[in-house]
Every structure is written in C-alpha cells, then in structure tokens.
Amino acid sequence: MDNSPYKSDYVYVNGIRLHYLDWGGKGNVLLFLAGMGCSAHIFDKFAPRFTNNFHVVALDRRGHGDSDYPDTGYDPDTLTEDLRLFLDALKIDKVILAGHSLAYIELSRFAILHPERTLKLVFLDAAYDSSSAEYKVVLGKNPMPKMMPAWPEDALVAVEDYIDTVKRLIPSLAVIWGDVMEEQTKHTVKTTPDGKVMDKMSEAELKAIRNTVDSYVPEYSKIRVPTLSFFADQNGSAFLSSEYMTEEQKALVMDYFKTVRQPYTRQYIEQFKQNVPNAEVVEIPNGHHYCFIQHEELVYEELWKFLAA
C-alpha cells in the first residue's frame, strides 16, 4: 500500500485535465515525469526523499495515470506545452525536471524552448534517441518479442490478475515489483462496465506515442542548463523467464545484450557526452531501466550531489 504523504489534484490546461501529486517541501520545484505507460505514483517512494530541500511534485502527462486520455496531442510540442501550462497553473516560474524513459521528450524540448525556466535536467535512463537508424537496427535484432507469449485472450476480471499477468510476461518488471509498482499500476488500468480490467491507454493513443518516439530527434547539443544523465548498462539477466524461455532462448537473450545492446549503449553514451560536454554522466553497470527503483540508493546519492551543487 502507498503511504507516502502527498496531495493529489488536477489542473485544466490545453483543453484537458492533468493529474499531479504534490509531496510539499520548501525550495526550488523538483518535478518528476514518468516513462511511457506509467503513472506519477511510480515515484511514491523516491520523490519524497527530496522534500527537505525541494518542493517535490510529479505530473501525469496526457494519456497516462489519472490524467485525461485524448486521442491526439502526443507530439513533442503539445506534450511540452502541456508541461508549460501546468507550471503556469501552479505559478511555478522555474523548475528542475527529472524524467524517466519517455520523459526525454519533455525534458529536452522544454529545456530548449524555455531555458530561462529550466534550472536543471535529470535523465533517469532517458537520454536516448529512439529515432536513430542505429537504434532501430538494435531493436530489430532483439530476439525477445518472438519469445514472449501473447496477452491472454480471456478477459481479466481483477486488478490482481492483471498484475500477475504483467509480472509473468515481463520478467524485467517482476524483478523490481513491490508496493510502488503495485500502487502505480492501479492508476494505469480501468475496469470496464462489463467487469474487464484493461489498460487505460487505447491502441490509438499507444500508436500516437510510438509514432512520436520513432520520429522525434532530441537536440541534446542545444541543451545549455546543468544536466545529469543516468545510463543503465543492462546485461539481459533481468529479462530471462524460466516460465516461457528455454535454456537456448535464454542464451540468445544474453548474447543479444552482450554483442548488440551493450556495445550500442556504450557507444551512445560517448556520443551523448560529446553532444552535451558539460553534462554529468553516471553509468550503472548491469543496471536496470527503472534505475531509481532497482538502484535507489546510488541514484539518490548521485542526484542529491547534483542538486546540491
């Protein structure tokens, strides 16, 4: 159960309702943005640790968590404008942005369009470029999509069944599962009138977000604000399933990470350092994409040093 003290509220901006969590605190505003498909509650444990020196909030972007789910508006400029108008609604002039995964879109775009309002940026295994040809080649070599079983055709009628299915099909999430994942997932699913539990995000909305991810070219070299970027150098072990993978398939997964994914990640990190030479970079060997959960203490300590500087 989630016991972190926060205020849960909404603002109406850009024609939609956006949900946010506010843990309070004094000082500069530190705003967290979750990755694709996740809610602001993913930060229920991590975010409150900074309230002694910062005013800490987390926002559900459109199509996520407890915010509205419009069919359109998932392009970089609209997502960034949502963020700007949200800050205006809360009368936040300047902000420190910390984002996971998909949040690289808002972080990079906002810092470029509104550098005067951006105090610092923190990429939580987020500072990638999913539009690049190199990245798409890496994805194309990934053997796991062909191994993963399909989502069950029988309707799930309880949130617990939905969660069990996610953990069974996606071992990398099962590895980090706990109270935070339990709580945040409850805010990403809905129960239909006929009793079925399903993801709040529709196929159309998911497609729109993926189109943005596939096409958006982040201009990291234009970032001029202090930046900290965590990179999780994943070795593949978190993705192995004893339930639906054979030993040969497990070996294929590990080989993919060793010979394809890890070399690409290391090459990309060097490229990022060149594009953002003043950025502080923290590499996490054998790291997990949800680094602020699996490697919480390391991320907390490095983030705290960066924020205090």
Tell me the CATH superfamily. Answer: Alpha/Beta hydrolase fold, catalytic domain
Helix run count: 10
Strand content: 15-25%
Quickly give the CATH architecture: 3-Layer(aba) Sandwich
Cα end-to-end separation: 34 Å
Mean pLDDT: 96
Radius of gyration: 19 Å
Number of domains: 1
The CATH topology? Rossmann fold
**Global morphology:** globular
Helices and strands: which structural class? alpha/beta
Low-confidence stretches: none
**Number of E-type strands:** 10
The helix/strand series, from N terminus to C terminus, equals EEEEHEHEHHHHEEHEHEHH
Which strand order spans the largest sheet, edge to edge or round the barrel?
Answer: 1-2-4-3-5-6-9-10
The profile of the biggest β sheet is: 8 strands, mixed
Classify the helix fraction into a percent range: 25-40%
CATH class membership: Alpha Beta
Any descriptors?
about 300 residues, alpha/beta, Rossmann fold, eight-stranded mixed sheet, two-stranded antiparallel ribbon, 10 helices
What does this structure look like?
The protein has about 300 residues and is of the alpha/beta class. It has a single domain (about 5-309), classed as Alpha/Beta hydrolase fold, catalytic domain (Rossmann fold, 3-Layer(aba) Sandwich), CATH 3.40.50.1820. Helices cover about 35% and strands about 20% of the residues. It is built from 10 helices and 10 strands. The chain has helices at about 75-90, 105-115, 135-140, 160-170, 170-175, 180-185, 205-215, 245-275, 290-295, 295-309; strands at about 5-15, 15-25, 30-35, 55-60, 95-100, 120-125, 190, 195-200, 225-235, 280-285. An 8-stranded mixed β-sheet has the order 1-2-4-3-5-6-9-10, sandwiched between helices. A two-stranded antiparallel sheet has the order 7-8. α2 links the parallel β5 (about 95-100) and β6 (about 120-125). α1 crosses α2. The longest helix has 29 residues, at about 245-275. The two termini are about 35 Å apart.
